[in-house]
Target: Probable glycerol kinase
Amino acid sequence: MEDNLNLVGAVDQGTSSTRFLVFNAKTAELLCYHQVEVTQLFPHEGWVEEDPIEILRSVHECIEKTTENLLKMNICLSAIKAIGITNQRETTVVWDKLTGQPLHNAIVWCDNRTQSTVDQLVAKTPNKSQDYLKKYCGLPISTYFSAVKIRWLMDNRPDVKKAIDEGTALFGTIDSWLLWNLTGGAKGGGKHVTDITNASRTMLFNIRTQQWDDELLNFFSIPASVLPEVRSSSEHYGDMCEGVLSGVPLCGCLGDQHAALVGHTCFSPGDAKNTYGTGCFLLQNTGKRPITSKHGLLTTVAYKLGKDEPTHYALEGSIAVAGGLVRWLRDNLGIIKESADIEELARTVNGSGEVVFVPAFSGLYAPYWRTDARGTVCGITQWTTKAHIAYAALEAVCFQTREIIEAMRQDACDVPEDGKSPSTTSLQVDGGMTNNQLLMQLQANILGCTVLKPSMPESTALGAAMAAGKAIGVWSLKPEDLTTVTFERFEPTISQDQIASHYAKWKLAVQKSMGWHYSSETDSNLPGTDSQGTTSANHIFPGTVFIMSTFLLLAFTRDTS
Ligand SMILES: Nc1ncnc2c1ncn2[C@@H]1O[C@H](COP(=O)(O)OP(=O)(O)O)[C@@H](O)[C@H]1O
Ligand SMILES: O=P(O)(O)OC[C@H](O)CO
Model:
């Protein structure tokens, strides 16, 4: 058996699936992995939950299967020197610290049950602005982030409220839940920790002071006692307490999008990557200073790779629905059997036939931040087939990405002294959807730039492994030590003029998706306020539509009589 290797494991706990992967720390080569799909529960319209126990079991299963494969490859498990964790972010778990049992299913990041909570929170800000807390946490008040989900649990689940009040409950994002359990949990020794990137997605963490913030905790009325300790993304959190890897140090932790930024070695200001998973997230490194977006992007911590290392920040464009739309076509419409089948189906037609699909299932995230938007399919004719819908679904992911790139370019123009926008000539990509060659080609065409897919596309897990390997000194992140990455390239095959009218239709369809849903508790507060706190002419409600149509009908009758 080969045992003079330095290997690093990575748990990648995503929204759709869990993976455990093992990398060679010297060459960054992926040796083997195992993947298990995670059940998503939809108990009510707009609600998305996952079972924290199933998530934990999936991690153990993936570790067992991957290590079995390593042994079959004649590799000794003692070669695994460290483990990193990367995870779906914002997803909220509250559990009993004495029994280790979750007090509720995990409320997943894209769940929008908290819409009326958001409306009430915005209504209590002095300027009635979604952006009121941005100066502290870099985020708009939205259904997306953890604090709003904790607030909902406290308001709607008396047992959760009681446990929090009595000090027996712990809160964590998925990284915390896993780290606490893998280091001993209720049996003893469980470490209640999180890393700075995950903390920066809760709305309770001040990204400038880099601490939990009393003003934010007061705003949401959440006690600090439930929160994990915040650590850097690369340091020793504790050791695996059981199983075949018992004793191996857990020493890398980043939210999945931040891990992908590291995996792509986006270490310089201006470097950017786009990850196509359940959602789609474009992050651009902005260096050691947080930059506030004026164009609907989030400010977030990019990474802090060691206790004594500087914190780097990023601008982020978050798209709620990307691969999730493919899963919806599979599970809800049944027009494909496997996610990968969408490519074959879409290739049976030459285009979407002018169909535009805006998948605003959870409202629209960046750059609009409109909780009132809902999914819309425009341009259907008698001629439309499921293949056109599939094609439009793939285009939707690409058009959303284009909107994020445009917002980043606009922000870069606003800060000319250090404003660097993502390269206009290429975009680095990763994530499950990038296996779709048609999607990658459409993305190159719609952006008018080269799309670069690394030949080893598990960038998220790679980033977590790099952070863990760095913490124990087996993985050097010095530029001269980084291994050369080879890419598959997708070049634009049509001109931007050819795409312009289609993009204009996308923009029109986005407007049509807005103003569809509003929560009854706060109807009177809603019309006309966008994320910049300005009045939007496009924010038209059904009642308004009725009044306007009656007015037009009357006017028309009068003119022609
Ligand atoms: N070949 C494909 N074409 C289109 N979508 C795909 C393909 N393969 C996977 N997907 C979608 O990508 C998502 C899974 O990607 P992954 O990066 O594993 O997600 P996550 O990190 O959210 O768990 C699923 O939503 C799935 O529907
Ligand atoms: O599961 P993914 O890869 O789509 O990532 C989810 C994000 O972390 C949510 O913010």
About this structure: The domain at 317-455+488-512 is CATH 3.30.420.40 (Nucleotidyltransferase; domain 5). The longest strand covers residues 17-24. DSSP finds 16 helices and 23 strands in the chain. Confidence is low (pLDDT under 50) at residues 521-561.
